[in-house]
Amino acid sequence: MAAFVFLDENRSGNVTEPEEGTGTPFADLVREALRPKGMTFRKLAAGAVDPASGHAISPSTVWKVSDGQPIRIERKVVRAFAAGLGVPLRTVQLAVAEEYVGLVADDPLNASTSDATVVVAHVPGLAAKDMPRVREVLAQFASGDGPAPEGGRSGA
User: Fold this and answer.
1) Using CB atoms within 10 A of its CB, is residue 37 exposed (0-12), middle (13-18) or buried (19+)?
2) Using CB atoms within 10 A as the burial measure, which of 42, 66, 103, 147 is most buried?
């Protein structure tokens, strides 16, 4: 089971969205994979094939991502990069969301359990203390006392 909570919780005004281009978690994943001696764009691309569709990533696409240049993001591309990088798909999805959309998706409240994974999408820089309403929504959801309050959306 997974719960996704999307709420605009930045009421304190003390956290601002970072300037565009300040974080490159997707490019960082690719650069880290290229770090070992002997690894090349071509070798990384050879393993970057989407297991679902067979879509393959070109060496030039690997280079563009490592250089921080934007590429067209599609599910098959993200799945191919996950395969080529040898990391879980979720890791690549979260890195892409942060780099391309500017959202961090994580569990800042440590609310995930062995039965349920909680993912909260938020702007970078927010901490659990900045999200009291998210905590309320998760508590209400977990208790079974009803749906999320109006204005928030949650899904299981």
Assistant:
1) exposed
2) 66
Residue of 153, 28, 26 lying closest to 95 (CA atoms): 26
Q: Which residues contact 44 (CB under 8 A, 6 or more apart)?
A: 30, 33, 34, 59, 62, 84, 85
**The CATH number of domain 25-102 is 2.40.128:** no
User: For the chain, how many helices (H) and strands (E)?
Assistant: 6, 4
**In the chain, where the domains are located:** 25-102, 106-143
Q: Among 106, 139, 112, 111, which residue's Cα sits nearest to residue 125? A: 106
**C-alpha distances out from residue 120 to 72, 117, 123, 131, Å:** 25, 10, 10, 10
Give the global pTM.
0.69
Q: What is the pLDDT of residues 59-71, one digit of tens each?
A: 999 999 999 999 9
Reported as half-sphere exposure (CB side, CA atoms, 13 A), residue 55 has a value of 15
Provide the 3-class DSSP secondary structure of residue 155.
strand
**Cα–Cα dist 154/79, whole Å:** 25
12-27 pLDDT tens trace: 444 444 444 457 999 9
